[in-house]
Write a structure and sequence with these properties.
Number of helices: 6
Radius of gyration: 22 Å
Number of domains: 2
Strand order of the largest sheet: 7-5-6-4-1-8
Order of helices and strands: EHEEHEHEEEHEHEEH
CATH topology of the largest domain: Rossmann fold
Distance between the termini: 67 Å
Helix content: 25-40%
Structural class: alpha/beta
CATH class of the largest domain: Alpha Beta
Largest sheet: 6 strands, mixed
């Protein structure tokens, strides 16, 4: 299948973050950009993405050209994205424990991801279950809008991406973080919780999970402690 991840410059921020607008933290000197690293990927034409029509046209093109896709956006651009979304698209949420400083009193700590799961990958038996919410910190790497590896793995898993049979295109190169995570992606293995037996979708990298959550983890630890105490105090019959 042909799949795509689109992480375009966010609506209302494209000119400020990636083009000549103020607020990106860089100053121009003799035709070069210098400053604190907040505009590492300068594009003179990035301001076109401050037009809502560009984001809606992107969604229509993805629906036309790909079997499945995902589009990232800012929380305040969600109405624009939903207006162009096909009926089969679903809303997923990236929750970030670290928020970008701003002038508003309410700190924004989440971003929407519009996901169009391929029709053949929607049913339960088509692959491991994946939640529509991710809790992961944004990395402070000097590139505005760069996504952590956990984000890319989560999106790929929602799309049902199988590296052995699918193509997954990163349509906006940016920092290169998405493309890098795609190249190392492995299918998540599903297993059962060691305490309650509920299915667990294992991460594609890193340590495997034994339980489905903190409650089961604590209960499993208590049960193991009780069993260990029983083994110590038990005496063989004479």
């Amino acid at each position: 299948m042909r799949l795509a991840i689109a992480d375009p410059p966010y609506l209302g921020r494209a000119d400020r973050w990636y083009s000549d607008g103020r607020g990106g933290g860089h100053t121009r000197t003799d035709g070069l950009w210098a400053g604190n690293g907040r505009k590492p990927d300068h594009h003179p034409d990035a301001a076109v993405w401050d037009d809502p029509a560009e984001h809606q046209a992107l969604i229509r093109a993805l629906e036309r050209d790909y079997d499945g896709w995902a589009v990232a956006g800012a929380a305040d651009s969600l109405p624009v994205l939903l207006e162009a979304a096909p009926p089969a698209a679903q809303l997923a949420v990236w929750s970030k424990p670290n928020a970008m400083p701003g002038g508003a009193r309410l700190l924004n700590r989440w971003e929407p991801v519009l996901v169009r799961v391929p029709d053949a990958r929607r049913r339960r038996e088509s692959g491991p279950r994946v939640t529509d919410a991710l809790h992961a910190a944004a990395r402070q790497q000097g590139f505005m809008g760069a996504k952590p590896p956990e984000w890319t793995r989560w999106v790929a898993a929602m799309l049902g991406y199988d590296p052995s049979v699918d193509e997954l295109h990163d349509l906006f190169a940016g920092s290169g973080a998405v493309a890098s995570a795609i190249t190392t992606y492995r299918l998540p293995a599903e297993s059962a919780c060691a305490f309650c037996g509920s299915p667990i979708s294992q991460p594609s990298t890193g340590r495997r999970r034994r339980t489905c959550g903190e409650v089961c983890r604590q209960r499993l630890a208590r049960r193991a402690s009780v069993l260990a105490g029983t083994r110590v105090t038990a005496r063989p019959e004479v």
